[in-house]
Each structure stands twice: as C-alpha cells, then as structure tokens.
Specification:
It is built from three helices and eleven strands. It is an alpha+beta fold.
C-alpha cells in the first residue's frame, strides 16, 4: 500500500472516531415541551456555586426557556427572569427565591413567590401526572420563606410568578461532587 493510501485510511479512521465521539447531548439548554395550556422544561440545572464559576446559572426564565448567570442578565432579559435559586454544595438546605430578592437577587427583577417546603399540598406523583395548566388553578401559593432539604429528593416546590402564572418545580437530583455542583429540576408552568 503506498503512502497516499495509508494516509487516507488513517485520516478516515480518525474522522470516524471524532464523529462517533461527538454528541448533541453537550447542549446545556433544557428540553421544552409545549402543550396548549402548560409549558414543561426538563433537566434544568441551577448552580450550587455561589460564584457561578461553573456551567450552571442561578436564574431561569420560563418565557425564554433559558438559564442565566447573574452576569448574563441585561435589561432585555431582566423582566423575563422569573425563577431564582439559592443553595451551596456545602449546605444541606436550598431554596428558590424571588429574582428581585434584596440579598442575592437582581435589582429591578421580577417578583415570584414560592412554597419551598411543600409537605402535603402537592406531590411528585401529581407533578408527574400534570398535563393541563388549568389543573393548577386551585393550587394555593403563599410564600413560606422556607427551604428544603437536599437529602430528601425528589420533591416539589410551588411558585407563582409576577404575571400570576402558577407552576411546580420538581427537584430531581443534587450533584455536589465534581465539576459544576448543581441541582437538576423539571418545571411545569401555566401558559
């Protein structure tokens, strides 16, 4: 086999390996399922890193379907961010808070209220069966100012954003070890 053919074979093998190792799963954007009355976001990550030096941010917009680090929020995005999260990889408790929170929120942000410590009001099974926004109409959301234990998962958190839309966050997992400490959630909100 001459040198040109050998080079072509090696180049083909390298290209095949590179292509085989590539994946669309590297996309950090959550999957969005849009029905007539309910919007669902799957596998949304929130940072457990207070400096936000890793991949995940602490803010999310149910309008844009994107996560944001505080440094990424400009005037165009500010009014669209309706979910904020606070937790750290060293704490055993975490909580969702209003994007305009005076301590760790964003000045001029929107207001969202949460029931972080849901006990009997709503269950993970109800979240899994939720398919219509109307099913959240009778859910009462009064800010409890509480947190939830990161050791007791999965669990749900209820919320109501500034536009009056109610939603449920299902906290599925916590990743404290390794690169990018974060929690992973699914979110369902009325349209």
């Amino acid at each position: 086999m001459n040198i040109t053919k050998k080079f072509a074979v090696v180049l083909f093998i390298c290209a095949s390996i590179f292509t085989g190792c590539s994946s669309d799963e590297d996309n950090n954007e959550p999957e969005v399922v849009d029905t007539a009355t309910l919007k669902t976001f799957k596998d949304v990550s929130f940072a457990l890193d207070s400096s936000e030096g890793f991949d995940s941010g602490r803010f999310f917009s149910t309008e844009t379907g994107k996560s944001y680090k505080k440094s990424q929020i400009d005037a165009a995005v500010l009014s669209k961010v309706d979910i904020a999260f606070y937790g750290s990889s060293s704490n055993t408790f975490a909580y969702f808070l209003s994007p305009n929170d005076s301590e760790v929120g964003i000045a001029g942000g929107t207001s969202t209220i949460y029931v972080n410590n849901v006990t009997t009001e709503y269950t993970v099974a109800q979240f899994n069966k939720l398919e219509k926004g109307e099913d959240l109409a009778n859910v009462t959301v009064t800010d409890d100012g509480d947190s939830f234990p990161t050791s007791d998962l999965p669990r749900v958190v209820l919320f109501k954003n500034a536009a009056g839309k109610k939603g449920v966050i299902c906290v599925k997992s916590v990743h404290n070890v390794g690169f990018d400490p974060r929690i992973v959630v699914d979110i369902k909100i009325q349209k």
